Amino acid sequence: MRRAVARWQTWWTRLFVAAVLAGVLLPVAPWGLVVAVLAFGLSLVRPPATTRGPVDLGAPLRGRWVVINGPGTAVPSHGVKAYGQAYAVDLLQPAPDAPATLGWGLRARRPQTYPSFGQPVHAMAGGTVVRARDGQRDHGARDTWPLVVWMMTVEGFLRELAGPGRILGNHVLVRHEDGTVGTYAHLRRGSLAVREGETVRTGQVLGEVGNTGNTSEPHLHVQVTDRAPLTAGAGVPMRWRVAAVVGERDERWSTGPRRPTALPWFPENGEVLELG
């Protein structure tokens, strides 16, 4: 039942907003408040946690990458379990000239100036492409305080109303042979190398790292769920067979010691990995 309710998360959120607007703009009966409260409660329902153990997979990228928002520091790694993100991880290659702190300008840095942008993204396991979406533009980085606030409030709210596709940006979903589903998000516009229904093998290039969807700078968001769609899927822990911790740490992305909920085998936020 929880999965059935969670599947319609986007529509519960839309219903809540519509009921609130109706209550503000129209002299409606108290039913508007009842609908708003009910819709809000339903929008918070999440699928039950998975009972599956960690899945062993190939790495989605090649070369040196920094872990951010990963399950090696805390679970849920992105602060929420929505859209199957409990064990999701973001990976990026830091820009060597990136400022140590956020500024106050309103001009967004072009995504093409980041080293992560355009890097090939590889399938972590073989399977069938069940969703492949392209066409969203690569927007400028949200690398100043005004732009970050915009992304976290107005832009984030509008993407939430639009649904998971706008949050993920250009993305690919691959259903593996064991039934789990790998998600690769924020891909560069025009870079998708696969189409829906296609069978892919482990290591095959799916697309390129981009800056589409709900993202502050070019990076890859990757996760595994126990099913699709993402609103009905629960996150599944990942283990990459070819990942090696370099022994370096990028303090810009370090968020402190492991929390009690963290996965002990997964690298912490800020740690540098050699993937290949």
What can you see in these coordinates?
The chain is of the alpha+beta class. It folds into two domains: 2-43; 55-275, Glucose Permease (Domain IIA) (Distorted Sandwich), CATH 2.70.70. Helix content is 21%, strand content 23%. The protein is built from five helices and 13 strands. It has helices spanning 2-6, 9-25, 31-43, 145-162, 164-168; strands at 55-57, 63-68, 89-92, 120-122, 127-133, 170-176, 181-187, 199-200, 205-208, 220-225, 238-240, 244-249, 271-275. It has a nine-stranded antiparallel sheet. Strands 1-11 form a two-stranded parallel sheet. Strands 4-9 form a two-stranded antiparallel sheet. The chain is globular, with a radius of gyration of 19 Å.
